[in-house]
What we know:
The structure holds two protein chains of two kinds. By secondary structure, chain A is an alpha/beta fold. Chain A is built from eleven helices and twelve strands. In chain A, a hairpin with a 5-residue loop joins strand 11 (318-319) and strand 12 (325-326). Chain A is globular, with a radius of gyration of 22 Å. Chain B has two domains: 5-91 and 173-329, P-loop containing nucleotide triphosphate hydrolases (Rossmann fold, 3-Layer(aba) Sandwich), CATH 3.40.50.300; 100-172, no CATH class. An eight-stranded mixed beta sheet of chain B has the order 6-7-8-3-9-10-12-11, sandwiched between helices. A four-stranded antiparallel beta sheet of chain B has the order 2-1-4-5, with helices on one face. Chain B is globular and about 65 Å long. Chain B starts with a strand and ends with a helix. In chain B, helix 4 (109-120) crosses helix 5 and helix 5 packs across helix 7. The longest helix of chain B is centred in the middle third of the chain and has 18 residues, at 187-204. Chain B is an alpha/beta fold. Chain B has helices at residues 47-54, 81-87, 99-102, 109-120, 125-138, 144-147, 157-168, 187-204, 215-221, 239-244, 249-256, 320-329, and strands at 5-16, 19-31, 36-40, 63-71, 74-75, 92-95, 175-179, 207-212, 224-229, 232-238, 306-310, 313-316. Chain B has twelve helices and twelve strands.
Amino acid sequence: MTDERDIGGPRQPLLQVRNLLKHFPLKGKGLPFASARSAVRAVDGVNFDILKGETLGVVGESGCGKSTTARVLMQLIQQDSGELVFDGETVGSRALPLRQFRRQTQMVFQDSYSSLNPRMTIEDSIAFAPTVHGVTSREANTRARDLLARVGLQPERFAGRYPHELSGGQRQRVNIARALALEPRLVILDEAVSALDKSVEAQVLNLLLDLKQEFGLTYLFISHDLNVVRFISDRVLVMYLGQVVEIGSSDQVFDQPKHPYTRALLKSMPSMDPLQRTMEAPLAGDPPNPINPPSGCRFHTRCAYAQPVCRQRAPMFANDDSGHGVACLRYEADTASLFASEVSYA
Amino acid sequence: MHDMISLRDLHVQFFASKKLIRAVNGVNLTVGQGEVVALIGESGSGKSVTLRSIMRLHSERSTRISGGLEVDGKDMLKMSQRELAAVRGDTVAMIFQEPLLALDPVYTVGAQIVEAIRRHKKVSKAEAHRQALSLFEKVRIPSPERRLDAYPHEMSGGMRQRAMIALALSCSPKVLLADEPTTALDATVQIQILLLLRDLQKELGLSIVFVTHDIGAAAEVADRIAVMYAGKIIEQGPAAELLTRPRHPYTLSLLKSRSHGAMQKGQRLETIGGAPPDLSNLPPGCAFAERCKYAVAECSGMQPREETLSPGHVVSCLRVHQIADAQAVN
């Protein structure tokens, strides 16, 4: 598919994320328990690329920074440091002002109800952003009706309805239509199907696949449901406590996971077979607090492979030739020999 | 030996702004001693309503319950509020999805457990505190002595859920009701809680009814699984049998979407068209007929009867035998 907005050609990543850092300081009047200097280190030095036309899945537990990353990518919150490069242009630079970037990047949130204005009909909600960006309201409404039809809601029946008159699955379709109204190139789906029932989730996933083809979209798909991420993603990124611990193709990450955390996460999926039940939980305890993350490798407190060196030294993220990247001292040349060859995870 | 829970043709209806919501429409379910039963279904299928009616937690003013409802041989529908209060927590206890909402934010968790113990047993404060400590050890909370003095907001999600389980077990109930106990938890914590529930069940011989929409979670703990749709159990049976040889078309499609290889890359997912029926306006026949690819005209005309296919495996579907044939051909 050719797109006149495509500047760098197909091999130029659509979005490059460089050293992204976002800390939320915990001082101030409202928080009497916080000491003056502490901060939630929600995103702590994150690097990755989103390639053109791919679906990049993001997995990780709550508090790992996946949603904060998404919000910084949308520039809903400002990063403390780090750079976003969209198709070769730095976001916020003169070549790509924020307003133009936002036209090309849209987001769908988890809660389908709170992300729609309850006092606007869904047709007006969808048409709103295009009119802000200079489309006439007549044209915007025509487009809104087209999009409603495209996401499987007949405009004659649904256009005039209000959000509370729709089911959760229908509302999420509206949110998707609204995200597409500006003809974005990148759509960020932050737990967009997580609140839906399984049968409705399947319908919406099919819709997302169709729309991606039809409009030549690129997705960043954030979810805690590993089955869904595997199904929809070309590549998968695993986050732990504000950092990327592993990235690779969907098959690499799910079939040959390298990072001990990824392995434990995959092992934690229920077995679906009562005759082969999980006998031991792969990880003990909850994820540590991102306010005061462990020293060295952040996973060392829960890691079955951990050696003393893990407490002192933070691993460097490194890609192999096939694009499978991991941040773990077991894979670094000078420390690899310190580890036992294999530890079995339950 | 009698059943711990026995529901016979249970109906639960709510009055809401001139409409009558038929949330539960004739549920038959028994739970034996030491048995774990999972109720699965989508939102609005009546699984949580069924669970809460076992303890009669719904407001009496706006709810009508009919049918048979016995817990530990006692008729719960005939009980006064005072009698109910004595049974709740003592014979039957419940854990909820969101412990932060279920626990009182202004008391320490320890104080809440001590209160529950002293409400039901004549023991001193010190003795109740000692029992609370041993409960915290039982649910494997690290440094339990210190955690008893923590407020709910000071604990992590998994820790809070453990504390709520400790609270539920404080009066050594015979039956534990669990309403989506792991849904709000992360994957690595969810499996820990599921294994904890399984261990406690064995250790204490508890009967557990466990509501979830996650078939995987049900497969990890349940002896039997009951599938609900539009306020009815449309299929129930031993967990292994139901998961490997489902017979109702709804169970079939529900499992198909989760089985291995079902989510093949590059393929479309198999979906169930349409949406569940409106509970204030249920069709006269089978509630699933409208979405069922095996449905014939009779399906929307009459209610299917429950049919026992093998010991414990019960299905409500007119076409169950024809479907088995169709499946065999495929």
